[in-house]
From TrEMBL:
Taxonomy of the source species: Eukaryota, Viridiplantae, Streptophyta, Embryophyta, Tracheophyta
Entry superkingdom: Eukaryota
SUPFAM superfamilies xrefs: Ubiquitin-like
Domain Ubiquitin-like residue range list: 19-96
Pfam family, one: Rad60-SLD
Record-linked Gene3D superfamilies: Phosphatidylinositol 3-kinase Catalytic Subunit, Chain A, domain 1 (3.10.20.90)
Annotated protein name in UniProt: Ubiquitin-like domain-containing protein
InterPro entries attached to this UniProt entry: Rad60/SUMO-like_dom, Ubiquitin-like_dom, Ubiquitin-like_domsf
C-alpha cells in the first residue's frame, strides 16, 4: 500500500495552522491583544479596538498591517497572519496638526 501524502489526512496536525491567532493592535502607547479565529472577519477585531479605546471615535482611523490598509471583510487567513502579528492604528487628525500616518506634510 502506498502511503498517503502528508497533507491529505485529517490527523496531520503539522500541516494545519492553529485555528486561533492573537493579533495586537498598537497605537501611541495603547495596545489591544485580541484572540480570534483565522477565519473570522477582521471587522470583529476593529470593533473590539473601538470598544476598548473609548477616546477614539468609531470609524475615525485606519488600521495598517505590514503597511497595507486593513478591510473588515478580510480574515487573518486571507492575509496569512501569524499568531502575535501586529496591526498599527492611526487616528485621523482633524484640522491642522500633524499627520501621523506618513511623511506627507500639509501645504
Amino acid at each position: 500500500q502506498a502511503m498517503s501524502p502528508p497533507y491529505s489526512g485529517r490527523d496531520s496536525k503539522a500541516a494545519v495552522k492553529p485555528l486561533l491567532v492573537t493579533i495586537k493592535v498598537v497605537s501611541q502607547g495603547k495596545v489591544l491583544r485580541h484572540t480570534m479565529s483565522r477565519t473570522d472577519k477582521l471587522q470583529v477585531l476593529l470593533d473590539a479596538w473601538y470598544h476598548k479605546v473609548p477616546d477614539v471615535t468609531y470609524g475615525t482611523g485606519v488600521f495598517l498591517f505590514k503597511g497595507v490598509r486593513l478591510r473588515g471583510d478580510k480574515t487573518p487567513a486571507d492575509l496569512e497572519m501569524e499568531d502575535g502579528d501586529m496591526i498599527d492604528f492611526f487616528e485621523h487628525m482633524n484640522g491642522g496638526g500633524r499627520f501621523v500616518a506618513g511623511s506627507m506634510s500639509a501645504h
